[in-house]
Amino acid sequence: MKRIGLVILLPLLMSGCVQTTTYSGTDTRVAEREYVPSAAARERVSLGLAYLNRGDNEQAKYNLERALEQSPDLDEALLAMAHYYDVVKDEARAEQFYKRAVSVHPNSADAANNYGVFLCRQQRYKDADKWMNRAVDIPGYIRMSQTYENLGMCARQAGWDDKARLYYERALNYDPRRAATLLEVAELSFVAQQWDETRRYLERYHQGGNESPASLLLGAELEYSVQNTDAARRYGVLLLAKYPGSEQAKTYRMKYY
């Protein structure tokens, strides 16, 4: 099962607000750091996520807990803690923090998207579809192509191929060069035996400078399906030469050697 993209807020390190103070007996203004809980919490979130990415889960949790102590309702902190529990496979606590995030921040499209992705990974497809659609309906959301791609992948996992195709097309309306979506549509077209559509989307994928074991195997299978043996073998040669240890290379050897 494919893991669909999870949009996590990764805040930049922020310094606290700075105020100017005039000291008695001098006209010199001296800048001093003022403690602002939300800014301090964002620094902790950034640090916690950095530790999490390095696999230091203890330090990740410590910093994320400190962030929530400093700013209990900060959306970045709630989502980061939910992500932490998702990573360590504590689904119950992860869902608690996702629910809290969407409750405290009902207009946060990132919170709605992330909760939807989490639900899809739990195979709760109808709820996942609802939450990710809520994300794209929130005004001002800028990650539209990402969330529509998520919706498409989740629909495909659920076996809703027609719905998946619709979501993928919407993703490409927002970002025509989105590589993962182009390959997904090519695969759906191949399953539906739409050979021309498969070739069109696969060419768009490769013309964007993308190449993967999956795309090369799909190209070979497409060309074998239309009896274009020479083109199929060219794809196969590339696959075996560049990605010899991949699962797709093993599949190619089993089917066509």
From TrEMBL:
Superkingdom, natural source: Bacteria
Repeat positions for TPR: 41-74, 75-108, 145-178
Keywords: Signal, TPR repeat
Annotated PROSITE patterns: PROKAR_LIPOPROTEIN, TPR
InterPro entries in alphabetical order: Pilus_4_PilW (IPR013360), TPR-like_helical_dom_sf (IPR011990), TPR_rpt (IPR019734)
Residues making up the signal peptide according to the UniProt record: 1-20
Record Pfam families: TPR_12, TPR_8
Record has Cell membrane as a keyword: no
PANTHER family: PROTEIN O-MANNOSYL-TRANSFERASE TMTC3, PTHR44395
NCBIfam families: type_IV_pilW
The protein, known as: Type IV pilus assembly protein PilF
UniProt source species: Ferrimonas marina
